[in-house]
């Protein structure tokens, strides 16, 4: 039996695609197959061999230019000069672990906490989002005295033992933790009138799912520890929902003695435009916030910010040390990212340019019946393709074909959601108004070509 992962296998190269590759690309894919573990995946049936990046653009080995419409690792833009300069300068001075005193980690923490609600006043550092979420789960268990974690049905929160156990997007080959429970994501488009999916009614619908999951835990002798989600439900299909609708769910979680873990690896650092952090769109204060990919613009650094009393349940009892977490070079990169977001006004840029992109993408629905829904916040947009607008039947095959068409037109992105039919449009924040025509035009041409 072939086991597929929705997050790894939906848009991926497979052995049966090798015959159509040019000799150089085929040689590289064969080398990867020889020396790397079989778990690795490449994007596209015809993989892209990238060698250079600048801002929102990438170049392959043949010199062809691409528009990056997917990457939030280099969130500011590829090879941003402020980050490059900060990292280079610090590398020429010192790089070591956090058991020696150093100003970088302290100065950055002061700056980072200034962006958070006052209740979130302690920070810890790691290298990856998986590590941050792993620690967050440990904190949740220590604070609550429970073990049960609730996530959504297509969530991805990492690859460690703890985080993979609450990441169903990794596929059926990855067992879920027996103490985990999954709830359907609040998809306003698919729920429609069934759940009264507008604003407060969507919030009540979602809160009721969490309430039922907690009750199921109790029925099985599992004590509830917490709920984890990214506030735009990116792996579930990019579901921003109306601002504020998560408040009722937050109340249910806290009344049940659990904590809220806001995974900000994808919606954080100004990405959604309306607020610096994704959770702030909903007017809630989580107990723990986890940070990752965009934090260092390509330098591996991640973090956890928490309420002091919540973190104390773990940190007052168990020493924690991460050799590279919080090192001076990573902190220099993180500081450069935070300073650049402010200096370049990237949160407001994300809101304004993202709004223009959203409008332009919605316009494609006037000429293409396969466009079912276009939704987003800032520069984070889900473009859903369907077989029929009335039934809203997902069109996975079309989405994958569109990806290949876009790749041939120099636009790189991927898909999300349980059906693999939602284009996940999440370009670096360097994306400019002038790039909208390239992206929307390529989508228009791709859909036209596939229905010609």
From TrEMBL:
Keywords: Aminotransferase, Pyridoxal phosphate, Transferase. It comes from the Bacteria. GO terms for molecular function: pyridoxal phosphate binding; transaminase activity. Signal peptide: none annotated. Pfam families: Aminotran_3 (PF00202). Belongs to the class-III pyridoxal-phosphate-dependent aminotransferase family. This is 4-aminobutyrate aminotransferase-like enzyme. It comes from Pseudarthrobacter oxydans.
